[in-house]
Specification:
Length: 472
C-alpha cells in the first residue's frame, strides 16, 4: 500500500470522502493508533469509537472498530452518532485508553475526519499526532487493507445520561428556567440534537428545535455556527416567539448565539462573560486561557480580578493542556470553550448551557451584560476574515511577513510582534492584527481587534489591501 496523504492539522485528520478519506486509510490510521497505544503507558483499557452524522459515518466507525478488534484492541462503540465532547467525556467516564471520533466538525459535506482523543479526554498534543503520522508511514508499505465491515457486532455504550449527570455537577440546572427564556435551537443537522435541547427541556426551558433531521448535505450549507450562518435566522426568533437562538456545529463542540436584534455572541464574547460570571457568582479561581487569535477582552477580566492570563498557539489542544493543569476557563475564537472540572476539550453544549445560566442568574440580556463589561474594561470590536488564497500566494504572503521589519502595519504603529502562531502585531492603542494560514483549510485567516470600534470598517480595508499586496 502506498503511503497515503494523511496529515493531522490543528484538530485531527480531515479529508475528502472517497479521495484521501477512505475505508482503507481509516483502517491504516487505526492500526497506527493501536501501535501508538502499545508503545505508551495507555495500552490497557478499551478504546472508545464514536462518529458524527456525516455520510457513512457509522460505516467508517464500524470498519475501524472491527479492524482494531482483529488487532487485539478492546473496543467499545458509541450507540449511534454522538457529539465529540460526549465522546471525550466517555473516555473519562470509562477510564478508557482513549477514543477515536469520526468527524469533520464544521467542514463542508464532502469532508470526513478522524480525531484521536488520548486517555486524558482532550485533544492529542502534537508529539502524539506526529508519532501516529510516522507510524502510518512505517506501516503503510506492508499494510494489507482488511475486508470491509460496515456494521459493528460488539459492545456498545449509551453516554447521554452519564454525560447529563456530569453536567449537573457543573451547571445550576435548577435556575435555568427562572429566566423565562424560550430558546430556538439550530443543531445544523449535526449531533447536538437530542443533547443540548434535551438538557434544556429537562431543566424546564421551552425549546424550539430546527434543522434537527439528519442531512448529510447540511441543507446545502456548512454546519458552522458562525455569524454568517446564524444571524440571518434572527427573524425566526420573532416568528417562533423565542428570545435567543443557539447554534452548534456538526459535532457540537462549537457554538454561537444570536439575539432578536441580530447581535452575535460567540466565544470572543462568551469567554470573558463566562469567566467573569464564574469568578463573581460561583467564586471560582484559576488562570484564564485563550489562544493567540482570541479577543483580548478576556485579558481585562483577568486584570480586574487579579488572575493570570495565558495566551497559547491556535488549537484547543493547547488550551486543554492548561485546563488539565487547573485553569479556570479556556477558549478559542472559533467557538470552543471548556471550564475547570470538565473535560479538557471544547464543548459547545456546556458553553451554551452556561450562557443560559448566566442570563437566568443575572436577569439581563447578553447585549446588556457585554455592554457592562465594555464599560468596565473598555470597548473592543473583533472580526475574522477567511481569505481563499492559492498555495503560491499563501507562500509569498508568509515569506513576506517573515521578513517584514517595518515599524507600522496598515497605518498603525507596531508596539510589539508575536509569532507564536502566525504573525500578530500589537499596536500602541491596544488594537491588534494577526495573519496565519489555516491548519485545516486552504485559506489564510486575518484577525482584527480594535479598541476604537467606529474605525473597524476603514481599518479592515487597509489591512486587506496590505495582505493582498504582500501576497503578490
Amino acid at each position: 500500500m502506498e503511503i497515503p496523504r494523511i496529515k493531522f492539522g490543528t484538530d485531527g485528520w480531515r479529508g475528502v470522502v472517497a479521495d484521501d478519506f477512505t475505508f482503507d486509510n481509516v483502517a491504516l490510521v487505526g492500526a497506527a493508533i493501536a501501535q501508538h497505544l502499545l508503545e505508551s503507558d495507555q495500552a490497557t483499557g478499551p478504546l472508545l469509537i464514536g462518529c458524527d452524522r456525516r455520510f457513512a459515518a457509522e460505516a467508517y466507525a464500524a470498519h475501524l472498530a472491527t479492524h482494531l478488534r482483529t488487532l487485539g484492541r478492546e473496543v467499545v462503540v458509541c450507540a449511534g452518532p454522538v457529539p465529540t465532547p460526549v465522546v471525550a467525556f466517555g473516555v473519562k467516564h470509562l477510564q478508557a485508553a482513549g477514543a477515536v471520533q469520526l468527524t469533520a466538525s464544521h467542514n463542508p459535506h464532502y469532508y470526513q475526519g478522524l480525531k484521536f482523543i488520548p486517555h486524558f479526554a482532550g485533544p492529542a498534543m502534537p508529539e502524539t499526532t506526529e508519532r501516529i503520522t510516522s507510524l502510518i508511514a512505517e506501516l503503510a508499505p506492508s499494510f494489507s487493507p482488511p475486508t470491509l465491515a460496515t456494521a459493528w457486532h460488539g459492545d456498545q455504550i449509551e453516554l447521554r445520561e452519564p454525560y447529563f449527570e456530569h453536567l449537573d455537577t457543573l451547571v445550576n440546572a435548577d435556575c435555568l428556567s427562572s429566566g423565562g427564556l424560550r430558546v430556538l435551537y439550530n443543531p445544523m443537522h449535526g449531533v447536538g440534537t437530542g443533547y443540548l435541547d434535551a438538557y434544556l427541556e429537562r431543566a424546564g426551558l421551552e425549546v424550539v428545535t430546527i434543522a434537527d433531521q439528519r442531512d448529510v448535505y447540511f441543507g446545502g450549507g456548512i454546519p458552522d455556527p458562525s455569524p454568517a450562518n446564524l444571524t440571518p435566522l434572527s427573524a425566526r426568533l420573532v416568528e417562533d416567539n423565542c428570545d435567543v437562538l443557539i447554534g452548534t456545529d456538526g459535532d457540537a463542540d462549537r457554538f454561537g448565539i444570536v439575539d432578536p436584534r441580530g447581535h452575535y455572541f460567540g466565544a470572543n464574547q462568551a469567554l470573558p462573560l463566562l469567566a467573569d460570571y464564574l469568578i463573581r457568582y460561583k467564586h471560582l479561581t484559576g488562570e484564564l486561557v485563550r489562544t493567540v487569535a482570541t479577543s483580548h477582552l478576556l485579558d481585562g477580566v483577568a486584570r480586574e480580578h487579579g488572575l493570570g492570563l495565558v495566551e497559547t498557539a491556535v488549537g484547543f489542544k493547547y488550551v486543554g493542556e492548561r485546563l488539565r493543569h487547573g485553569a479556570l476557563i479556556g477558549g478559542e475564537e472559533s467557538g470552543g470553550i471548556s471550564i475547570q472540572g470538565h473535560i479538557p476539550e471544547k464543548d459547545g453544549i456546556l458553553a451554551a448551557i452556561l450562557m443560559m445560566e448566566l442570563a437566568a442568574t443575572t436577569g439581563e440580556s447578553f447585549a446588556e451584560l457585554l455592554g457592562e463589561l465594555h464599560q468596565r474594561l473598555g470597548a473592543r470590536e473583533y472580526v475574522r476574515l477567511d481569505l481563499p488564497l492559492a498555495a503560491e500566494r499563501r507562500q509569498r504572503l508568509l515569506a513576506a511577513l517573515t521578513a517584514y521589519d517595518k515599524p507600522d502595519f496598515a497605518g498603525r504603529r507596531i508596539q510589539s510582534r508575536i509569532t507564536t502562531d502566525g504573525f500578530k502585531y500589537l499596536f500602541e492603542d491596544g488594537s491588534w492584527a494577526m495573519i496565519r494560514a489555516s491548519g485545516t483549510e486552504p485559506v489564510v485567516r486575518v484577525y482584527l481587534e480594535t479598541t476604537v470600534p467606529e474605525t473597524l470598517a476603514k481599518w479592515r480595508k487597509q489591512v486587506l489591501a496590505r495582505v493582498e499586496s504582500l501576497a503578490g
